[in-house]
Design brief:
(Na+)-NQR maturation NqrM, about 70 residues, mainly alpha, 2 helices
């Protein structure tokens, strides 16, 4: 039982530290291999023309980035 509690506490501390790191850096956790970019693939789907949902999502993300840049203090 002591081993289980020790392992649980270790994982709890580990996740707590990861969450603090995310809050400080505002950067998502990513793999070390580079993901699809390392393979020369720019996007998850191989479509020449993205679907309407993807276009709307990309437009919304661009709008959010522009708003953040406009209202940036530093």
């Amino acid at each position: 039982m002591a081993t289980f509690i020790a392992a649980f506490l270790f994982l709890l501390v580990f996740f707590l530290l990861m969450s603090v790191g995310y809050l400080i850096k505002r950067k998502a956790v990513q793999g070390s291999c580079g993901g699809l970019g390392a393979l020369g693939i720019e996007k998850a789907c191989d479509c020449d023309e993205p679907c309407d949902r993807r276009k709307a999502r990309d437009a919304k993300e661009r709008e959010r980035q522009e708003k953040l840049a406009k209202h940036r203090i530093i």
